[in-house]
Structures are given as structure tokens and as C-alpha cells.
Write a structure and sequence with these properties.
The structure holds 2 protein chains of 2 kinds. Chain A is mostly helical. In chain A, 94% of the residues lie in helices and 0% in strands. In chain A, α1 runs antiparallel to α2. Chain B is mainly alpha-helical. Classes of the chains: A mainly alpha, B mainly alpha.
Chain lengths: 158, 330
């Protein structure tokens, strides 16, 4: 095992390998790895940010929901009041109308009654007259008269 | 069964496996020897003569080189004759191959990097980058230097891949290679002192460079001469600090080399048990024991393989940190 010129050859080879690695292998790999590390860091930061944003949005939406519920309740209350008012009003109107209708019906009825009475009176007089005529036309006897009068009265009653 | 089928004794088998494939210059007049093939002396001699070589009477063909030239070493005498300017082809080939695999995987991941849809390969690469970055940031605090982390990554992965070659069965690659005419092959580059020393020396040069850069030349000299006993003990300081300085690359190189070489050696010894013939009862027992042992050692070795790669990287980062520290008078 003796040292010889192989030593020099190996030193040259070693120098070339180290130089190549130094110039062409190490820097691009390290740069790329640094870039990746930066990217990962940025990604983590971004995801944290977006998580925060989501939390914010959730809170916002909760707030909005509560507000909307309040609003809805208010609207419903209003509507209830309104409807009660409308119902009351219509009740009142209906009662008034009813009273008016009933009143007018009553006066009509009264009018009709008066008319009927008038007609009746007229009819009655004419029936009495016709009965009298019949009686007069037959002979005038007290009994028979009486009978005829009774009969006429019966007819009338009917 | 490698040692028997290639006609070697166990010692030869070990030596063969621990020898690198060497390519280097041989001078004219150098006598080369080739292992001859054949049943008896006569066929061996004709085998050599067919190749135009003479036969030495001891199973080897001889060839005397007529001019200087570069050759693959066939044996120890070749290697000795080559001297310093020889190259371990196998170490160079496998280390460059594994380093290229590492860079290919990582640069592919860098090219196809997707921030949103990472592939499994990308996730693995990211994990490794993160791991190395964590280690470097935790240890290297003296200054800003963009070189340290990529260097640590390169060292860790390159050394790891080379160490992992130790888990490849010892004969799996050398045996077919030998059949193809490659005389030696060591597939684990980190079991070659040349490689570990090259890494350690490179780290040491960077250590010296950054030391001088951070402290100034005077500051650097001060840091090794006025430490740890003060200016009146300057020779002792120099002695201690220089030993301390030299110990850094030495320990780096020898730790990795020693661990992996020893691991490889144990694999080879276990492989030697398996290569005893199966016909006898004890042979069968040895085979079973060898198979079990190599499994156990391989599992344990996974730990060593990763650990040594990590230690080499870690110490490099520590040394770089020390280099960048300003000199302070204590």
C-alpha cells in the first residue's frame, strides 16, 4: 500500500466534485427549500387569517339573525294590533249596519201593517156591504138576518 | 470458491484482493512476468511461446521490455518499478463513478424541484440537505462561508457511497473482471490510502487557507507559536502546535482508511472460510459458519460505513470552524 500519483488524481476529483456541488447543486436546492418554507409560512398565516374571518362572519351573522328576529317580532306585533283594530272596527260597523237594517225593516213592517189595516178596513166594509146587500136581497127576517149576519161575521173571521 | 478455482493459496487470494489495479510507467529493460496457464510444465511453456514470450520454469512467462512505456502492473515487482507516477485505476474509476452518481442524483433533484408536488427522490434529497445544513449550522459558527455546507454534503455522500461498496460481496466484481483479463481490482475506493489521504490533504489545504485568511499570515504564525504556553516557551509551542496541525489530516486519512481496510479484510477472511471445499463434514460446517459470519459482519458494517462517512464530514466541518476562528491571545 504505497502512496502514488492516485493521490493527486483524487485531490483533483475531490476538488471538482466539491466545486460542482457548491456551484450547481447546493444553491438551487437550498433556495427552493427556502421558498417552500416561506410558502408554507405564508399559507399558515393565510389560513389563520381566514379562520379569523370566518369567526367574524359567524358573529356578524348571529347579530344579524337576532336583529331580524326582533324585527320580525315587531312586525308580527304590529300586524296583530292592526288586525285587532280592523276586527273591532268591522264589528262596530256590522252592528251599526244591523241596527240600521233592522230599523228600516221595522219601519217598513209598520208601514205594511198600516197599509194592511187600511186594505182590511176597505175589504171589511165591502164585505159587510155585500153581506148587507145579500141580506137585503133575501128577505128581511130577524132570525134569518141574524143568521146571515153571523155567517158573514164567521166568513170574515175566517 | 475464488481462491481454489483460480489456483491460488489463501494467502495469495488475500494479497490479490488487497492489491489495486495499478497503471504506471515501466522502464526499458524491466522484466515482466505473466501467470501461465496449463496442466503441466510443457503446456505452460507452449502457452508462453504462443504469446512470443519465454518461460521461466515456475509457471510464469517472462517478457523483457524493450522501451519505456505505460503498463498495467501484473505483480509487486511491476508496481515497485513504477514508483510514484502510477495510478490506481480501480480507485479512480470507482470513486469518480460514485461521485458522479451522487452529483447526478442531487443535480437531478435540483433541476426537477417542485415546491408543491415533491417526488420521493426530492424528499430524500431535501432530507439530506436539511440534515447536513443542521449539522453545519450547529458546528460551523465562526464565520459565513457558503463552501462549507456543500463540501460537507459532498464528503458525506461520496464517502458513504464508496464505503457502501464494501458491502458488495468481495468476489462479485473482481472475479468476473479477472476473467475479462483485469489482473487486480479493488472495488472499495476508501480502502485505498491514496483516496483517504487525498480527501484529508484537500481538507488540510483548505484548513491552512482559511486559517491564514481569517487570522492573517502573522496571526496564523502566532497561533502556532505563542500557544499554549506563551512567548517564553516558543519552541515547545511550535512543537506541540505543529504536531497538532499534522495530526489533523493524518487522523482523518488513517481513520477512514483503517476502518474500511479492516472491514474489507474481515470480509476477505470470512470469504476464505467459504472457499474451503464442501465434501468434508468440517468443510460444510466452515461454509455455514462463513455464510452466517459474513451476514453478521455485513449488518454490523452498515453501521461503520455510515458512521465513518459521518465522522469524516463532521471533523471536516469542525476543522473548518477552527480555521475560521480569529486568533486570541490567552
Amino acid at each position: 500500500m504505497n502512496l502514488n500519483a492516485t493521490l493527486l488524481g483524487q485531490m483533483i476529483a475531490f476538488g471538482l466534485f466539491v466545486w460542482f456541488c457548491w456551484k450547481f447543486v447546493w444553491p438551487p436546492l437550498l433556495a427552493a427549500m427556502d421558498e417552500r418554507a416561506e410558502k408554507i409560512e405564508q399559507g399558515l398565516k393565510d389560513s389563520e387569517e381566514s379562520a379569523n374571518k370566518i369567526l367574524d362572519a359567524e358573529e356578524q351573522s348571529k347579530k344579524m339573525l337576532a336583529e331580524a328576529k326582533k324585527e320580525a317580532k315587531k312586525i308580527m306585533d304590529n300586524a296583530k294590533n292592526q288586525s285587532e283594530k280592523i276586527v273591532d272596527e268591522s264589528k262596530n260597523k256590522a252592528t251599526e249596519e244591523k241596527e240600521r237594517i233592522v230599523g228600516s225593516a221595522q219601519s217598513e213592517i209598520e208601514k205594511e201593517v198600516v197599509n194592511a189595516k187600511k186594505t182590511l178596513e176597505k175589504d171589511f166594509a165591502s164585505s159587510v156591504m155585500s153581506a148587507v146587500k145579500k141580506i137585503v136581497a133575501k128577505e128581511v127576517s130577524e132570525s134569518s138576518h141574524q143568521n146571515t149576519v153571523d155567517k158573514s161575521l164567521d166568513d170574515f173571521r175566517k | 470458491m475464488a481462491s481454489e478455482s483460480s489456483g491460488r493459496t489463501f494467502q495469495e487470494y488475500l494479497e490479490h484482493h488487497l492489491q489495486n489495479l495499478v497503471y504506471g510507467p515501466l522502464p526499458a529493460g524491466h522484466e515482466r512476468k505473466f501467470y501461465s496457464k496449463g496442466e503441466d510444465e510443457a503446456t505452460k511453456e507452449t502457452y508462453c511461446q504462443d504469446k512470443g514470450l519465454s518461460y521461466d520454469g515456475e509457471s510464469y512467462c517472462k517478457e523483457t521490455l524493450t522501451e519505456d512505456g505505460w503498463h498495467l502492473a501484473n505483480n509487486k515487482t511491476d508496481i515497485e518499478a513504477m514508483g510514484f507516477w502510477a495510478f490506481h485505476i480501480d480507485t479512480l474509476f470507482f470513486s469518480v463513478l460514485l461521485g458522479s452518481i451522487f452529483l447526478f442524483i442531487f443535480s437531478r433533484a435540483a433541476q426537477n424541484f417542485s415546491i408543491d408536488k415533491p417526488t420521493k427522490l426530492q424528499l430524500f434529497v431535501e432530507m439530506m440537505i436539511d440534515f447536513i445544513n443542521g449539522v453545519v449550522k450547529g458546528t460551523f459558527k465562526a464565520a459565513q462561508n457558503t463552501l462549507i455546507a456543500p463540501m460537507a454534503l459532498t464528503i458525506f455522500f461520496w464517502v458513504l457511497l464508496m464505503n457502501v461498496m464494501d458491502l458488495v460481496p468481495v468476489d462479485l466484481i473482481p472475479y468476473p473482471a479477472e476473467a475479462l483479463g483485469i489482473p487486480y481490482l479493488k472495488v472499495v475506493p476508501t480502502t485505498d490510502l491514496n483516496l483517504t489521504a487525498a480527501l484529508a490533504l484537500s481538507v488540510f489545504i483548505l484548513y491552512l487557507f482559511y486559517s491564514v485568511k481569517a487570522k492573517g499570515f502573522v496571526g496564523f504564525i502566532k497561533s502556532i507559536s505563542l500557544h499554549p504556553f506563551g512567548p517564553w516557551m516558543l519552541p515547545a509551542n511550535l512543537f506541540i502546535e505543529i504536531i497538532d496541525l499534522i495530526a489533523k489530516p493524518l487522523s482523518l486519512a488513517l481513520r477512514l482508511y483503517g476502518n474500511l481496510y479492516a472491514g474489507e479484510m474481515i470480509f476477505l477472511l470470512i470469504a476464505g472460510m467459504v472457499s474451503i471445499n464442501l465434501t468434508s463434514f468440517t468443510g460444510l460446517g466452515l461454509n455455514l459458519a462463513g455464510i452466517t459470519l459474513s451476514l453478521v459482519w455485513a449488518i454490523f458494517h452498515i453501521l461503520i460505513v455510515v458512521l465513518q462517512a459521518f465522522i469524516f464530514m463532521m471533523l471536516t466541518v469542525v476543522y473548518m470552524n477552527m480555521a475560521h476562528e480569529k486568533f486570541e491571545q490567552h
